[in-house]
Amino acid sequence: MAPSFDHLRDADVDEDDYDENEIDLSDLREKYEVQLEQGFDTFVVIDGLPEVTEEQKPKLVKFLLKKLKSVGNTKEESIFMPMGDDGKSMRFAFVEYSTAAEAAAAVRQLDLVRPRGPCRGGVPTPVIEEFKEKEHMRSWLADPSGRGRDQFAMYRGETVGVFWNNEKDTPENVVDRQHWTESFIQWSPLGTFLTSVHQQGVQLWGGPSWTRQRRFAHPFVNMLDFSPGEKYVVTWSNRPISIPDEGHPQLAADDDGKNYVIWEVETGKPLRSFANLDLPTTGPDGQPLKAPPKFPWPAFKWSADDKYVARLTQGQSISVYELPRMTLLDKTTIKIEGVMDFEWAPATVQRDGNKSYEQLFCYWTPELGSNPAKVGLMSIPSKEVVRSLNLFSVSDAKLHWQSDGTYLAVKVDRHSKSKKSQATTLEIFRVREKGVPVEVVDTIKDTVINFAWEPKGDRFVIITTTEPVGQTAVPPKTSVAFFCPEKVKGNVVGNFKHLRTLEKKNSNSSDLEFYDMDFEGEKPESDKDLTANLQLMNISDHYGVTDVQWDPSGRFVTSWASAWKHAMENGYHIYDFKGEQLREEPLEKFKQWAWRPRPATLLTKEEQKQIRKNLREYSKTFEQEDAERVAGADQAVVEERRRMLDEWYAWRQSVEEELEWEREELGLSKPAEAAAKGEDAEGEVIEEIVEEVLEETEEIVQ
Amino acid sequence: MRPILLSGHERALTQIKFNRDGDLLFSVAKDQHVCAWFSHNGERLGTYKGHQGAIWTVDVNPDSTMIASGSADNTIRLWEVKTGRLLKTWEFPTAVKRVEFNEEGTQLLGVTEKRMGHLGSIVVLNINPDIDGEQSDEKELTIVCDESKATVAGWSYMNKYIIAGHEDGSVSQYDAKTGEQLENLPIHDLNMQLTDLQWSSDRTYFITASKDKTAKLVAARDLEVLKTYPSDTPLNSATMTPKKDFVILGGGQAAMDVTTTAARQGKFEARFYHKIFEDEIGRVRGHFGPLNTVAADPTGKSYASGGEDGYVRVHHFDKGFFDFSYEVERERQRAMQQQ
């Protein structure tokens, strides 16, 4: 029976009778104690004020209040301006804001300081660090061996190393560190910094001693992108930033909830942060998208000269921000209805007939109602559309700038009226020519899956496939088509013509084919008028290849099989530009290879021309140097082998002597084998005649 | 170098041994009999039947009168080579993974598996060289491996040490008389087990093979690593060729992973390295499964490899093999001759 109230014994009731003071509540206290505002999170210091007397003070306070209120909430009583003994102000003031966030905003926007808290024992004398010369960030360009080699970084296992490319020989290690990065590595576009990515943010490394140069503490960073001139970096994390209560070393409270941070490399400080945009759930045709949209990367795109950075709000507008202030150009976004994509010109282009400064970007919009689809070219900062092209029956478009910004190729996928058949056209904008003429290169029936310009050149290649692109187990059968301009008189570039299409014959997907675009041999009659002569130089097989990258000089190409994609035969191959394999190294858990980019040459056009003219002279000396080095290396190998051989025999001798001695010590005879050998040496031949009687019969002959 | 294909086993090979004269070849596999072959033509001399489980190991004594075999049926058996007569059976609580006669053939060591609450151990048995004599039941010595079990073991020169390779990648040196552990060094990568240990002809140094994809040449007296031979596949076996300063490594993708990769992935090749220069010299293809064991003829005329595919391939070296030498080696030879 459960005890009811009536049945309760005294003892049960009295159980509550205890001394309150005896209970140890310290743990609860600790947990629920209300923390009184402590610290100076809501305070800021205004320094460098004019000296005022008591009478002038209210005026100044009033003025200050006006400024201070633009950022947050404060009142007159919250401004404390200490007065000196002489009745004059001490030229600074403390201000209390209502919240810490406002104070933080004031610090950033009004360029104020936060008080550091009470100083015991007087103000410490600031220590002025002695000037130390910074390391030369571009020292690597002067290859110590004087051969102008390129560097690369390798990420394998848990180790990241930087090496000199030694062609056939083992790469020369520059630095090798365990756990240098947590997810991947990336070079800055001019090769100054090696970026490592960690859970706490990204770090930049460089200089001859590979010390840490910068730290951008963006927690859980996923991606980063440098501006072309290495002045700024944008970092992105899928997870919104969450600023802990105790603050963050680099980010402020109002960065909370943001996904992108734009940083200035020089100072290592954040300029502005942004949240992810909601991605459209409908396609350009208004139909809901089947697959969840992928986050576009890069979302923030840089202009060629690091002056602007822009982000697209799909279907609505493009926001162009001016650097380094990170304010919207003309304080407003550029509204372009339906805009699907945009791309900055990768170089500052001098348009014919345009004298003023401009940066160009192109964008495209799909068909909206009865309006045709459009490709536009916009000039910044004037926001003037300098060229626009109307297109019909467009299902998709891709924008491809040539590396100098001379051409813009727009790959337009068109559908027929019934939307049953697809075709692709290439619209090429000649940006530098007067009026930006547009040329249409033949209609391609097959699906174009990739497009690439020749860097700094005027030829391009496309990859096409006859089969629909989709998720299939078997890689689609593809072909490569080469295009180049026609030969014309004068200093102009002729029309783009199809040069050749190469069908892929077998399904072996690990072949690398090397083509010479300017083959010096015989040229087929049909290509007489074209500015290219295509010749297959070599085919190499790299089983399981996942990535390919050219070195910055275009002399070598590396292909590698990354453990990120599969675990088969991870490692790399190095080829020269002719396709001859120089080196092959299988490496356990090989993940990433990255050639170190080089900054643009400092030589003038004339100087470069001069070098090109005297190339034969130079190559003679280089070839001789190479030959000498190879001979020297061979000599070194022979020396090394000689040393190893001597070392081995010396070791053997010491062991044999020791063995002999130990045997004698123990009074043992030589082992049987050695004894047998001794007999052999004497050449004693033992002849044994074995007579075997098989059968013996006796017959009596009568 | 046309190989002789010995197809007498029905299951994966586990070990091959040549006798000292190099005329006989003994092979054991996961099927339950030991085979003896004439190495010059691949004719089978006979089989030794009696084991009740996979046979892991075999060894022949120096005068080729007896062989010992160790099996998963928890026994070591001693056989007469000539007749196939079973001379003695020793019983153990667990499987026997390795047997080896000492230099004189007077003692035999056996490595027992760690299983069912029994620790791995190395046992030493006295062998009566008289073929018709009584064999003792007594164990001369038992070394218990309480840290990491031994996978391979062998006798050093003059029976001074017993050297054992362990599952954790380390190599131990024991006093062969007392069983006391003198040394234990991490020769291979941690927890990359040693799969083979074979001796030079004078037993002063040995070669180890490991799952860490390397083979190493180690001195018996101080366990100093003399040479390292890196490869691109887990190794199961390694041997040294007499007469020429080469080593042969065998391995390949572990049998259980083979079906998940392409054929070219397997790397089922015997690899030749120069013993002193550590350079890879060449590869011999042929098996279509990983190589479980390689053995070199002590007279230097041939080598044999046994694979997961159940075949033994005996290769007799060509003239080219003997003629091949590095310039520095020839240099040295000339210098020696002049002296």
TrEMBL record, chain A:
<feature type="domain" description="RRM">
    <location>
        <begin position="42"/>
        <end position="111"/>
    </location>
</feature>
<keyword id="KW-0694">RNA-binding</keyword>
<dbReference type="InterPro" id="IPR015943">
    <property type="entry name" value="WD40/YVTN_repeat-like_dom_sf"/>
</dbReference>
<dbReference type="Pfam" id="PF08662">
    <property type="entry name" value="eIF2A"/>
</dbReference>
<dbReference type="InterPro" id="IPR012677">
    <property type="entry name" value="Nucleotide-bd_a/b_plait_sf"/>
</dbReference>
<protein>
    <recommendedName>
        <fullName>Eukaryotic translation initiation factor 3 subunit B</fullName>
    </recommendedName>
</protein>
<dbReference type="InterPro" id="IPR011400">
    <property type="entry name" value="EIF3B"/>
</dbReference>
<dbReference type="GO" id="GO:0003743">
    <property type="term" value="F:translation initiation factor activity"/>
</dbReference>
<keyword id="KW-0963">Cytoplasm</keyword>
<dbReference type="InterPro" id="IPR000504">
    <property type="entry name" value="RRM_dom"/>
</dbReference>
<comment type="subunit">
    <text>Component of the eukaryotic translation initiation factor 3 (eIF-3) complex.</text>
</comment>
<dbReference type="InterPro" id="IPR035979">
    <property type="entry name" value="RBD_domain_sf"/>
</dbReference>
<keyword id="KW-0396">Initiation factor</keyword>
<dbReference type="InterPro" id="IPR013979">
    <property type="entry name" value="TIF_beta_prop-like"/>
</dbReference>
<comment type="function">
    <text>Component of the eukaryotic translation initiation factor 3 (eIF-3) complex, which is involved in protein synthesis and, together with other initiation factors, stimulates binding of mRNA and methionyl-tRNAi to the 40S ribosome.</text>
</comment>
<keyword id="KW-0648">Protein biosynthesis</keyword>
<comment type="similarity">
    <text>Belongs to the eIF-3 subunit B family.</text>
</comment>
<comment type="function">
    <text>RNA-binding component of the eukaryotic translation initiation factor 3 (eIF-3) complex, which is involved in protein synthesis of a specialized repertoire of mRNAs and, together with other initiation factors, stimulates binding of mRNA and methionyl-tRNAi to the 40S ribosome. The eIF-3 complex specifically targets and initiates translation of a subset of mRNAs involved in cell proliferation.</text>
</comment>
TrEMBL record, chain B:
<protein>
    <recommendedName>
        <fullName>Eukaryotic translation initiation factor 3 subunit I</fullName>
    </recommendedName>
</protein>
<keyword id="KW-0677">Repeat</keyword>
<comment type="similarity">
    <text>Belongs to the WD repeat STRAP family.</text>
</comment>
<comment type="subunit">
    <text>Component of the eukaryotic translation initiation factor 3 (eIF-3) complex.</text>
</comment>
<keyword id="KW-0853">WD repeat</keyword>
<dbReference type="Pfam" id="PF24805">
    <property type="entry name" value="EIF3I"/>
</dbReference>
<dbReference type="InterPro" id="IPR001680">
    <property type="entry name" value="WD40_rpt"/>
</dbReference>
<dbReference type="InterPro" id="IPR019775">
    <property type="entry name" value="WD40_repeat_CS"/>
</dbReference>
<keyword id="KW-0963">Cytoplasm</keyword>
<feature type="repeat" description="WD">
    <location>
        <begin position="48"/>
        <end position="89"/>
    </location>
</feature>
<keyword id="KW-0396">Initiation factor</keyword>
<keyword id="KW-0648">Protein biosynthesis</keyword>
<dbReference type="InterPro" id="IPR036322">
    <property type="entry name" value="WD40_repeat_dom_sf"/>
</dbReference>
<dbReference type="GO" id="GO:0003743">
    <property type="term" value="F:translation initiation factor activity"/>
</dbReference>
<comment type="function">
    <text>Component of the eukaryotic translation initiation factor 3 (eIF-3) complex, which is involved in protein synthesis of a specialized repertoire of mRNAs and, together with other initiation factors, stimulates binding of mRNA and methionyl-tRNAi to the 40S ribosome. The eIF-3 complex specifically targets and initiates translation of a subset of mRNAs involved in cell proliferation.</text>
</comment>
<comment type="similarity">
    <text>Belongs to the eIF-3 subunit I family.</text>
</comment>
<feature type="repeat" description="WD">
    <location>
        <begin position="284"/>
        <end position="314"/>
    </location>
</feature>
<feature type="repeat" description="WD">
    <location>
        <begin position="6"/>
        <end position="47"/>
    </location>
</feature>
<dbReference type="InterPro" id="IPR015943">
    <property type="entry name" value="WD40/YVTN_repeat-like_dom_sf"/>
</dbReference>
<dbReference type="InterPro" id="IPR027525">
    <property type="entry name" value="eIF3i"/>
</dbReference>
